[in-house]
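User: Sequence in, structure out. Go.
Assistant: Echoing your sequence, followed by the C-alpha cells.
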Amino acid sequence: MGEVFRAAFDAYEAFMKPCIAAEASASAQLRAFVTGTAAYAVAHPALHTAVIQIALNATASDGTPLVATLPLRAPEPAVEDILRKGQEDGEFRDFDVAVVAGVVRSAVTHGMAMRQRDDPDADLTAYAEELVSLFDLGIRR
C-alpha cells in the first residue's frame, strides 16, 4: 500500500510543480496550490479520495499510521514557504505560518477529498475559488 501512496503522491507533485512555478507572487502561488489541487482532484477523483482515505485510516503492521511511516515531502514550494514569502514581500500580514499552513492544507486536501467523496458531482472548482477568497481575505495585508 505504501508504494501506491508514494506513486500517487509523486503524480500529484508532478502535476502541481509547474502550476505553482508559473506564478511569481505568493498570493498567485497560493491560488495555484488551491486551484491546482482542485484540478488534480477533478482529473483523478478516485485516486484523490483513495489517497486521503489511506492517509487518514491505514496503519502499518505495528499499528503506526501508515502515512507516518512514509518518507514523503511536500511539493515544492511547500505551503509554509509560500506563506513566508508573502510575509517577507509584504503581501501577507503577520500570522503564525504553521497554523495558517495547517488550515490551508486541511481545507485543500482533507476537506476537498471528503467533499468529493460525499458528493461526486461537487463543483470543486467553485469550492477552490471560495477557499482562495477566504484565504486571501484572511491573510492579505
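User: And one key feature?
Assistant: The CA atoms of residues 46 and 96 lie 34 Å apart.
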